[in-house]
Structures are given as C-alpha cells and as structure tokens.
Automatic annotation (TrEMBL):
Belongs to the complex I NDUFB3 subunit family. InterPro entries: NDUFB3 (IPR012576). This is NADH-ubiquinone oxidoreductase B12 subunit. Accessory subunit of the mitochondrial membrane respiratory chain NADH dehydrogenase (Complex I), that is believed not to be involved in catalysis. Complex I functions in the transfer of electrons from NADH to the respiratory chain. The immediate electron acceptor for the enzyme is believed to be ubiquinone. One of its GO terms (cellular component) is mitochondrial inner membrane. One of its GO terms (biological process) is electron transport chain. Keywords: Electron transport, Membrane, Mitochondrion, Mitochondrion inner membrane, Respiratory chain, Transmembrane, Transmembrane helix, Transport. Its main location: mitochondrion. The chain crosses the membrane at residues 55-75. It is found in: Mitochondrion inner membrane. It is a single-pass membrane protein.
Length: 93
C-alpha cells in the first residue's frame, strides 16, 4: 500500500534571503578553530612577498649602484699600462 503524497507549492520568499544559497556560499568548514586567528600572518603587510621585500631593504638600490659603477669603470677607467710587463725587456734582469 502506497500513500499518496500531496505536493504543495513553495511559499513565496518575501525577504529574498535564500538560506540554502547562504550555506553553500559559506564554503567548507575546517576543523581548525584557530584558522581564522592565523589569517593575519598571510595577508597584508605580513604576506610572504612583503616579508621578503623587507628582509633586504637596500638590495635593489645597491644592485643598481654597483652595476652603474661597474659600467663606469669599464668605460672610463681604462688601464693605460697594457704593455707594462713587456716594456721592461731584458734590461732588468
């Protein structure tokens, strides 16, 4: 014996709030009760990139200055004593 089911139409939602959509958007709940309190370590000023940038504060400026000096030395400070060892000849034995 089967009981017949009476299907009723859903009631109109006057507020527009859908609890099923709210639960679905909340995401997957983890078992870690401290996860929300640990979030600050990985966002904003404490993110991995910001911590890396502040680890070497003058590295960028120092690299550019060193490269500029190496270029200056290569182009303008040439050694005029190229034949210094050959110039002494056999007179200085």
């Amino acid at each position: 014996m089967h009981f017949t089911q009476i299907r009723r139409a859903q009631k109109a939602n006057l507020t527009g709030f859908d609890p099923k959509a709210f639960v679905a958007s909340a995401g997957h709940r983890t078992n870690d009760p401290w996860a929300r309190r640990e979030q600050w370590r990985y966002i904003g000023p404490m993110s991995r990139w910001n911590r890396f940038k502040s680890a070497f504060p003058g590295l960028g400026i120092a690299t550019v200055a060193f490269a500029a000096y190496c270029g200056y030395e290569y182009l303008f400070l040439k050694d005029d004593h190229h034949g210094h060892a050959e110039g002494h000849g056999e007179a200085h034995h």
